Amino acid sequence: MASIKHKNTKRIEGLDKNVWVAFTSVAADPSIVNLGQGYPDIPPPSYVKEGLAQAAMVDRLNQYTRSFGHPTLVKLDPFKEILVIVGEYGSWFSTMQALVEEGDEVIFIEPFFDCYVPMVKMAGGKPVLIPLRLVGYSISSADWVLDQEELASKFNSKTKAIIINTPNNPIGKEFYFIYFFIYFFYNN
Predict the structure, then answer these.
(1) Which CATH number characterizes residue 84's domain?
(2) 87 vs 160, which has greater pLDDT?
(3) 180 with 166: CB under 8 angstroms?
(4) In a domain, 99, yes or no
(5) Residue 3, domain member (yes or no)
(6) DSSP 10
(7) What are phi and psi of 145, to 5 degrees?
(8) Per the domain annotation, does 96 fall within a domain?
(9) 8 pLDDT more than 90
């Protein structure tokens, strides 16, 4: 029988392994408590388990949610955009595929969660990075600042989006000048 040789598509060539590959091997050590990847070794509180058991007793949990919106969310405020997602990775991937064209640029504020850049690249986009800079000692997230002039210089005719992750993962920085971003996005 002839062997079949697998070749990846061009759109995923050059995507580096992510940091979680390294952490998975480190966390395999039984002396390590891994809270970073959704594998906690600590059992949940009994009230959480009891609540889950009660929720499982409700009828009609064995079917798909309505494709035009969960009734509870539609009734909550039908004039707002409420999106229920399967998970963050899936929603990010779908969003980038829907919005980013070949050559579009997407601005990211560093540091950021490692999955974002590969999803932009897979959509044909170009990640544009701008770092938060540490001013003084890292006592709190307020010690990390964004140079607004540097940010403004990143916008151009190819800018499709800016990812505003607030509070920032992993340092917890909150961006209170959101209107600054919106101003530059629409006026540049």
Answers:
(1) 3.40.640.10
(2) 160
(3) no
(4) yes
(5) no
(6) G
(7) -125, 155
(8) yes
(9) no
Tens of pLDDT, residues 31-57: 887 776 666 678 899 999 999 999 888
β-pairing, 144-145 vs 133-134, is: antiparallel
**Whole-number Å distance between alpha carbons of 188 and 184:** 6
Asked if 132 contacts 110 with a C-beta cutoff of 8 angstroms, the reply is yes
| Residue 160 pLDDT > 90 | yes
pLDDT at 124 (0 to 100): 92
Rounded mean pLDDT, 79-108: 84
User: To which residue do tokens 């494709």 refer?
Assistant: 67
The mean pLDDT value of the chain amounts to 81
Prior bond of 30 cis (ω within 30°): no
Tally the domains of the chain: 1
54/102 Cα distance (integer angstroms): 48
Q: How many CB atoms lie within 10 A of CB 147?
A: 12
User: Average pLDDT in the 153-164 region?
Assistant: 91
Query: Tokens 């990390």 label which residue?
Result: 144
Tokens 């050590």, residue located: 29
Q: Is residue 94 part of a domain?
A: yes
Rounded to 5°, the CA angle 107-85-49 comes to 125
Note the pTM of the prediction, 2 decimals: 0.69
Cα gap 169→106, rounded to integer Å: 18
Helices (H), the chain: 19-27, 46-56, 71-76, 88-99, 116-122, 148-154, 178-187
Structural domain that includes position 75: 10-187
Q: What's residue 10's pLDDT?
A: 77
